[in-house]
Write a structure and sequence with these properties.
By secondary structure, this protein is α/β, with parallel strands linked by helices. It has 13 helices and 13 strands. The chain binds iron/sulfur cluster (SF4).
Length: about 400
């Protein structure tokens, strides 16, 4: 089993192509293959055409998927029959709206330096106990190439703190080199950098941007992100959308002072930003931050939020975050999926750096090597009946 299924192009309308996966049709935007024709096979991710593949190769892959694809759908249908309770209702809502499609992205954390001092974050500037690292341009490009060519990922997130060592020139160089070497949906998660930089990265081929707004409450925002305002963050997110990026955004659960009403507003704000993906992470306190004594939110608080968001917004992509997996290393991811989520990221950061990207401690998965992590994810998808076909536009 692989984490993307090729589809056949059955219609083209300017930049929008219709792709067929067995008996299902999805739409995807085609920015990169001007001469793509009906009848060709492609991989799409995040509603984007990321790679065309030869018919014979596609046929072989589809043959290996045919039987499994039907079985996965049956499992998913069985798990969503006669829903009872919030989580099951949310999961059934996801099934009715989006079927069993699921996106699997890889994430590479290339620097843990940050100029900001968010009170909830272990890689904040003032954490002098943290050993810092930066991957250089070639190391990042090599890690991406390995993820795409060897591990067969079709979507990658490049993440760092707000690290100005990566100038516009360096970041453009990274994106251009990656896009030249590998067909991939590239998503950047580099914090609050100016919109001109984001425009340049888009022009170089990046198509997604992950920027969470963390809380819809402006007072909490200023308190926990000293020196920054919610308005600045929301302006950036809106600019990213205007540039054309797929936007991944959401908030933190468990900030001291966050009320139930705030959480509902957080969900509303997430939706009003029209993101391609919702991401809700629990605040897991890091011992070297001012919020070290804050209680960890219960797993159920995160599952409730995923479920409520799914019921309110049936067509959304909702991520199972690593922080959720960390709350319950055995069942966190599965329970997230069964509460309405339909996306997951696999950490592909080179092992020597993984434990240093310490936004919070003891992150799930850092004890495993990449292949073990991938096996675990594929096993999970098989158990709950999800298939890595694109969710479409
Ligand atoms: S949350 Fe982001 S911006 Fe804030 S300190 Fe952590 S890495 Fe830096």
């Amino acid at each position: 089993m692989c984490y993307a299924i090729p589809g056949k192009v059955v219609a083209i309308d300017d930049k929008v192509v219709t792709v067929e996966y067995f008996d299902e049709k999805k739409k995807a935007r085609n920015d990169f293959y001007a001469d793509l024709a009906v009848g060709e096979y492609i991989y799409a991710q995040g509603g984007f055409v990321v790679q065309r593949i030869a018919e014979e190769e596609a046929a072989n892959i589809l043959k290996t998927w045919q039987e499994l694809f039907t079985k996965l759908k049956e499992v998913d249908l069985r798990l969503t029959r006669e829903p009872k309770g919030l989580y099951q209702v949310a999961n059934a809502t996801r099934q009715r709206s989006l079927g069993n499609s699921c996106c699997i992205h890889g994430i590479i954390e290339f620097s843990n330096y940050c100029r900001s001092n968010c009170l909830y974050c272990g890689i904040r500037k003032d954490n002098v106990n943290l050993k810092r690292y930066r991957m250089d341009v070639d190391e990042i490009v090599e890690a991406c190439e390995y993820a795409v060519k060897e591990l067969k990922f079709k979507a990658l997130v490049l993440q760092s703190g707000e690290d100005l060592w990566y100038s516009q020139e360096k970041l453009v160089d990274i994106v251009e080199k990656v896009m030249r070497k590998c067909p991939v949906l590239l998503i950047v998660s580099i914090g609050e950098r100016d919109s001109e930089l984001y425009k340049k990265l888009y022009a170089s081929g990046a198509r997604g941007a992950l920027v969470r707004f963390e809380t819809s409450n402006p007072k909490l925002y200023q308190k926990y992100r000293p020196g920054h305002t919610l308005d600045e963050r929301l302006t950036l997110i809106k600019e990213l959308r205007e540039i054309g990026y797929l936007v991944f955004t959401g908030f933190l659960l468990g900030l001291p002072g966050q009320s139930e009403k705030d959480i509902l507003k957080d969900i509303e704000l997430t939706q009003s930003l029209k993101p391609e993906m919702f991401t809700f992470g629990p605040l897991i306190p890091h011992p070297d931050t001012p919020l070290k004594d804050v209680p960890v939110p219960p797993l159920e608080a995160v599952l409730n939020t995923i479920a409520r968001a799914r019921i309110l917004h049936p067509d959304s992509r909702i991520l199972v975050t690593t922080a959720l997996e960390t709350l319950d290393k055995e069942e966190g991811a599965q329970r997230g999926f069964l509460s309405g989520a339909n996306s997951l990221m696999v950490n592909l950061t080179p092992k020597k750096y993984q434990s240093l990207y310490q936004i919070y401690p003891e992150r799930a998965g850092t004890e495993l090597d990449t292949k073990q992590k991938i096996e675990k994810v594929l096993q999970l998808l098989t158990t709950i009946g999800r298939a890595p076909t694109d969710l479409g536009m």
